[in-house]
Amino acid sequence: MSSLDRFDRLILETLQQHGRMTNQELAEAISLSPSPCLRRVRQLEESGLIDGYVALVNARKLGLTLMSFIQISLDKHSGDRFDKFEEIISGYPEVLECHLITGQSADYLLKVIVKDMDAFQQFLLQKLTRIEGVSGIHSSFVLKSPVNTTALPVT
Predict the structure, then answer these.
(1) Which residues form the HTH asnC-type domain (predicted)?
(2) pTM summary value
(3) CA distance 42 to 99
(4) Residues with Cβ < 8 Å from 38, sequence gap 6 or more?
């Protein structure tokens, strides 16, 4: 991170907010000419600092209105048990994020989005509880998200 100069940081900040802007627009936004701007963007991509580009889709407009954070406890703390759980959970499109955590009685924290409570019940009963080794499930439902960003701090 220390090797990034002011222009690199501006590029990262700007692209996180406006990923579809053209190189010309980006160059103007950061007060750099287009050719060096494009060269810098390509260097940031090649270095892996820019992983890729995505479209952020409106969940509500897709009918996905119920978000939940689910703490999962496993019965055994072995590499095989963790690997199998992660392999299975990564195949569920309802799971937006899966984190192996510490400091809680749970082993994993999932961020899940579904259509409604019926869909949540189906996800819980037909998928989560059927994963071998799951010994505890605790769900919390999101009421409001006053901060919801994908942008990382680069300054």
Answers:
(1) 4-65
(2) 0.89
(3) 30
(4) 23, 27
Residue 63 contacts residue 115 (beta carbons within 8 Å): yes
Q: Which two tokens stand for residue 152?
A: 């990382």
Q: Cα(55)–Cα(51) distance, rounded to whole angstroms?
A: 14
User: What DSSP character marks residue 73?
Assistant: E
Distance (Å, rounded) from C-alpha 97 to C-alpha 152?
16
Question: How many CB atoms sit inside 10 A of residue 113's CB?
Answer: 19
What is the full per-residue pLDDT of the chain (155 aa) written as tens digits? 458 999 999 999 999 999 999 999 999 999 999 999 999 999 999 999 999 999 999 999 999 999 999 999 999 999 999 999 999 999 999 999 999 999 889 999 999 999 999 999 999 999 999 999 999 999 999 999 999 999 999 97
Domains of the chain, first to last: 6-46 (1.10.10.10), 60-141 (3.30.70.920)
